[in-house]
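Students often ask why inverse folding is considered easier than folding. One informal answer: many sequences map to the same fold, so there is more than one right answer. In these notes we will look at a single instance of the problem. The structure comes first.
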């Protein structure tokens, strides 16, 4: 067998084409077994940046396909974000509701945070059960669950009974194990490096 280092460019190209042909046949065989289509429970968690950004990307993608979507923000209601500004230009395809007043260390009022969380959860349940919405984003729900502002058992029980075709995306650090257990897709964002630690403040277009 000729070593790769001794091959001519033509031989390398032929070898590559043969490998890709076999890989495609293998992939096609696997894809042929994937026949289920259903609404997913999707969780974006972890300490790294990008949880909400990735979730909003999925909302934008759904809108691109003409699907109606809803966004309920549990914490960032007081923020003037670029995502919200864009989505407000598509009222026929996206309903966005904000019921938070900032992170818990900003409000410093636990009872008010709990009431806001309950109000947002009711909005979320209404949106998920509304058949017009194909995808519902519950932005930072994990935060209020972490602080026990909502009963995790109630949230899990509701999500397990959601409409079959509705996608639900949940973001925020420290996702509860019970939520991870019932989710179809879970992504953990890992922080390797962040400019905040070097004294760089949050900036428009990057963080919000």
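Output (designed amino acids):
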């Amino acid at each position: 067998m000729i070593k790769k280092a001794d091959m001519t460019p033509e031989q390398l190209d032929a070898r590559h084409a043969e490998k890709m042909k076999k890989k495609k046949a293998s992939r096609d065989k696997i894809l042929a077994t994937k026949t289920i289509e259903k609404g997913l429970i999707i969780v974006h968690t972890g300490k790294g940046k990008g949880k909400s950004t990735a979730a909003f990307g999925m909302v934008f993608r759904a809108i691109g396909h003409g699907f109606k979507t809803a966004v309920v923000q549990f914490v960032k209601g007081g923020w003037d974000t670029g995502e919200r500004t864009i989505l407000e230009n598509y009222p026929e395809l996206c309903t966005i509701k904000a019921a938070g007043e900032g992170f818990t260390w900003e409000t410093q009022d636990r009872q008010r945070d709990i009431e806001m969380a309950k109000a947002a959860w009711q909005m979320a349940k209404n949106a998920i059960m509304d058949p017009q919405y194909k995808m519902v984003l519950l932005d930072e729900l994990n935060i209020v669950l972490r602080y026990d502002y909502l009963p995790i058992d109630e949230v899990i029980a509701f999500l397990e009974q959601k409409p079959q075709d509705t996608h639900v995306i949940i973001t925020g650090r420290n996702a509860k194990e019970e939520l991870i257990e019932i989710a179809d897709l879970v992504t953990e964002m890992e922080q390797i490096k962040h400019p905040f630690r070097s004294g760089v403040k949050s900036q428009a277009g990057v963080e919000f």
